[in-house]
Amino acid sequence: MSAKKTERKNSILILGIGNILMGDDGIGIHAIHELEKLPLAEGITLMDGGTGGLNLYEAIVSHKKVIIVDAIDLKETAGKIKRIDLKEVKLLLDETHCSMHQNSITEPIKLAESLGKCPKIVIFGIQPGKIEAGLELSAELQRILPDIVNQVLHELA
C-alpha cells in the first residue's frame, strides 16, 4: 500500500481549469486536450478540472507537483502567459481576480496549505480575450495555444 502512495507522491499532475463552453475561459481544458495528443513520460497525469472547487483537493495533494493551466485576469492584453510559482500564488490567493472562477482553484490550494499537504504548484495563467458562450477560443488564444503547451512541457523537463 505504501509503495502505491509513494508512486503517486512522485508523480506530476497537469490540471486544466475552465469552462470550455465559455470561450477563452476554457483555455486550461484546451491545453489538456492538446497535451493528450503527445507522448508523455510515465508518472504524468492529465486532468480536466472543470471550473475547480474543493473536489480537486485530493487530486492536488496526491501529487508531488501540480502544474495548473487557467484563464486568469492578469490585467494584460489577451494571450499574455504568466508563470506563477507557489510563492506568488500565496500572494494572489486573497485577490479576487486570481482566477476567472472566483475561488475555484484557490480553495483546494488554501486547504492543502492549511493542512501542510501542499505540493509544489506552478500556475500558467493566461489572459483571456473573450469570455462568452461558445466553444471556440479567441484568435489570440488559438495562436498562443502551442506556446502554452510548450511552456508546460518545458516545466516538465
Question: How would you concisely characterize the structure shown here?
Answer:
It contains six helices and five strands. The chain starts with a helix and ends with a helix.
Question: How would you portray this structure in words?
Answer:
With 157 residues, this protein is an alpha/beta fold. α2 packs across α6 (139-156). 36% of the residues lie in helices and 18% in strands. The two termini are 29 Å apart.
Task: State the end-to-end distance.
Answer: 29 Å
Helix/strand-derived class? Answer: alpha/beta
Helix content: 25-40%
Largest sheet: 5 strands, mixed
State the CATH superfamily name.
HybD-like
- CATH topology call: Rossmann fold
Strand order of the largest sheet: 2-1-3-5-4
Mean of the pLDDT scores?
86
DSSP, total strands: 5
Q: Give the overall shape, derived from the CA principal axes.
A: globular
Strand content: 15-25%
Write the layout of secondary structure elements.
Blueprint: H1 2-9, E1 12-16, H2 27-35, E2 44-48, H3 57-61, E3 65-71, E4 81-85, H4 86-92, H5 106-114, E5 120-126, H6 139-156
Parallel strand pairs: 1-2, 1-3, 3-5
Antiparallel strand pairs: 4-5
Question: What brief labels describe this structure?
Answer:
5-stranded mixed β-sheet; alpha/beta; Rossmann fold; 5 strands; 6 helices; globular; 18% strand; 157 residues
